[in-house]
Amino acid sequence: KMGDAVAQVRAAIGALYGADVARQKEANEFLVQHASTDAAWSTSLALVADDPSNPPDVQYFGANMMYGKVKGDWGKLPEPHRGPFVQAVSGALTTLLQRPASVLAARRLCMVMAATSVRSGGEATDALVQQALDFAQRGFASGAVEGVTLALEIQAAVADEVGDQRYDVKTALACALVPRIVEVLATSERVLEASVGGNQSSLAGLRSAALHAALAWLRMDSGGGGGCVLSPGQLAQSRRGLVVGALEAMAAEDSAVADAAAEFFIAVVQPGAPESSPAEEAAAINGVVRGLLSHGERILGRNDPVATEDLARNVCKVATALCERDANAAAGAPAWDATGSTASLHGGEFLSLTETVLRLAESHERPVMEAAADYFLMLNTVPTSQRHPSAGEPLFRRLAAACLRRAELPADFTSWEEADEDRDTFVRFREQILADLLDNCQAQMRSGYLAEVCGALGTAASWQRAEACVFATRVVASQLRRDILEPSSPGHGAAGPDAEAERSSAMLEQLLGTVGEAGRAAAAAGDAGFAAIAGSNAFGSHPVVVESTARMIGAYAPWLGGTQRGHARQETVIMYLLCALRVPAAFRHASHAFRSVCARCAKRLNDANTVTSLLDSVQKTLPAAPPKAAESSDGKKDDDDDRSAVIEGIARVIASMPDPTAAAEFAKRLAAPIAARAREHMNAANLAQARLDLLGAEVRLIAAAVRFLEFANLVDVRGAIVEHPAIATLSAAWPTLSALNAEPWRSAPEVVDALCEVYTRSLLCAKTTAAPLLPHLLEALRDAFVAHLHPSCLDALAVAVEVFSAPDATTQPPGASRVHDPAIAESFANALLACAQAAHASLSRSPIAEQADVARATFELANKYALFAPDVLLKSPALQPLMGMACAAIGTNERDAVRAALGMMSALIEPGRRAGATATWQNGRVAVDAWVASAGGGENLVRAALLAGGDRCPRHLLRPVAQLLHAVRTRYGHNGGFHAWLSSVITDPSFPSPNDPCDDSVRRVFRELATREGDGSLPPQRWSAMVVDFFQICRREADKDALLAHQM
Known about the structure:
This protein is mainly alpha-helical. It is built from 52 helices and 2 strands. The chain has a two-stranded antiparallel ribbon. Helix 27 (543-555) packs antiparallel against helix 29 (564-580) and helix 30 (587-605) packs parallel to helix 32. The protein is globular. The two termini are 60 Å apart.
């Protein structure tokens, strides 16, 4: 019975809103199922009825259920039932409007009415609009707010519902409704006019709804351009009261009304609508500008930044929209400007608006500056020569000062954990908004910018002010560097930029000189460091200032290394950074800045005395363990060991030394204390007690020490060829490294991964000069992998293969790459065989998904052998087992393993035209062909690739799968069995999955296209594209018509 069903639904709604989780779940499942039935139409009507058993929450649920039915199932409701249903909804809506507690349900029913009308066509929608206008007329006449409320809700719902339709339906409805827009906007106009001048009208509470409805109709663009239907001029001519009322609503105490008014104007002033005459448009814009100026005077007159913040923010938002509409007018561009600006029609009001926005940003806190930021950024898109003088350097000088104040940390700041300020919000504001604004200020002020900032720094009364000045200096580093290092950049005269660059460079020299004085004084103070000078030098006044200064130094490293003035400051700046390394809060940025300065200034620091001094200082200041990952003032948290940046910095200096013998000695000195700390960690009684993370970190520092030790010339000052410094460093550390290569240490991934990084860095630096150590490296990598299956061992082995291979220069053109030394080639062959056998045994014991990284590394290693040592791979007994493993891996959904397997198989089956023509491949690919021809070879590979593409593999690998299939087809076409293999897979009715098979017609078309021969065969790229389209059809990502284009 109907009554029983409604009672059951009411009970379920009560359970849904109750506290019993189990009953909530059951109720939700029941309600979802009920909503899909035809009974939900009548049930939802019963739930919104004016009945004591329908409390407001039940009525809202019923209205929401009804809205979902209309949106999803309106087409299923029989035609004779639609009219009575709409009438019943209308009656329920009229009743609910009289019940203040049921307002949410009433609004939902307005959306139901709109949804039914829109789905019934333009005529029904127009009739609903007329009904809403009638409701409004009667409401205005009788003073009944409910009728006006109903009218506004329906108007807004109709416009929103039209916007949700597909393009053709939306366009047809908009064309039918837009002619009535002026008539519809009259409702919103009367509501807003009733509150103009401070009148306490009963309609004042409807202003937010009125603005929403008006904006929804203005956005009902039938042309699809995205703008408003009426331009500002047209709107002012047809509904001036709406504009005036909306301007006054911006100052409403109700923030919802004020924000709605701001949103209204932001949309209205956007370009896009067909405009009336330029004079009418300018007059309308001037009216909005005058309204904003009036609000600005009111705000500034009250002198209460907290109370006026919302209005100030909205004024700046609307002003920004006006500036985006016509930046030339905002900048006071002259009438003769060829850009087509209407600046001459706006008079001086726009310039007054610019002044008002700036004053609001100066007098209010961050939210207003955020709202005003885009105004000044847009203003700066107008060439300076075309602006009014007041919109140039004077304006941006004041803006820079305001930004500097907003950049300060709170006065009571101690740490982000204790601060009331939200770190992410503050950092985003400084590093994005303020950084952009200050960059624009510097572009206008040129050298005056640094003068302003340095002046503020000199008078800073707090460390927060000093830190803000350091921040302001850093964020313009990129632009300043261009001014100084590239003074003849386009757009400047011949003499101007050089003078500006010289002044900026001189101020930077002075600024960094003060930084250097702080560094020298802190160094002289010994362990007290910056604490000893906190009261005498701003750059040592607080750990946060030290951190910010270190970051600034890193930003100006190119200037330090590229100018004579910078050269004069290198020594003391490095002293500052070395002292900053002792400040935990500054360590991260100080270490990275140290590396940048060393890299840029290496050739001026590479004498023996300086390097000795650097090594001694670093050994004193570098922590014995990685600093704790702390959140820095920029809001970033980095788990990397920042000590590596310090080591890399000194390594860059060592690498620039002209004498490789001296460089090797210094590199050994750099690595020696690191190796000593590693040995200390190895003194643990057993592996369980050892700090493997700390041990691994020290080994990685050795990798950092050799990373940049690249020497093209290994001839010393006496003319003798000497050992490569990277290999000398590795040899010196080898006692420690070889001990780590043994048990129990090589069982720990943290240790082995770090060791492999050392080997990789050494090989990449030393190249083939690492040959004396190569047998030991290969042995260590092989044994560690065979014993414990560390993927990083195979990654390092792959680098070694690449380093020691070279093209065969004995033939013309050069033949395939190969390892030329027979002994080294044999070592690589033995390593490959042992590692492949270990991987095969492991991957055979357990699923590939559980060892995806081992599979990935194995196939990538084989791929490197195929590219750089194909003679070794093609002769190896490991080749065919590797191909079998790759075939199995292609059938999984492990992204990296599948990618590596596809790469390996493609390289073996189609090595490329030039490589494939060499004797190495011509003679050696017999083993590949034999595997393909075997019972478990080619057919299984094609099956795995087709099933992977159709169902299993990650989507971004569809094209590599298709390309592998094309390679198989090219090599093993009709006579080789490819067509038969493909047909046996595709003709399976359950392909690609028994749960979701592909249509027989699609499989038939694909088979025909894939096996075409002769003139009808698709070119390689189109063939692969066709296969990808087929895969997407199988995955239900494309329609089966996607194959039609390939049949033509």
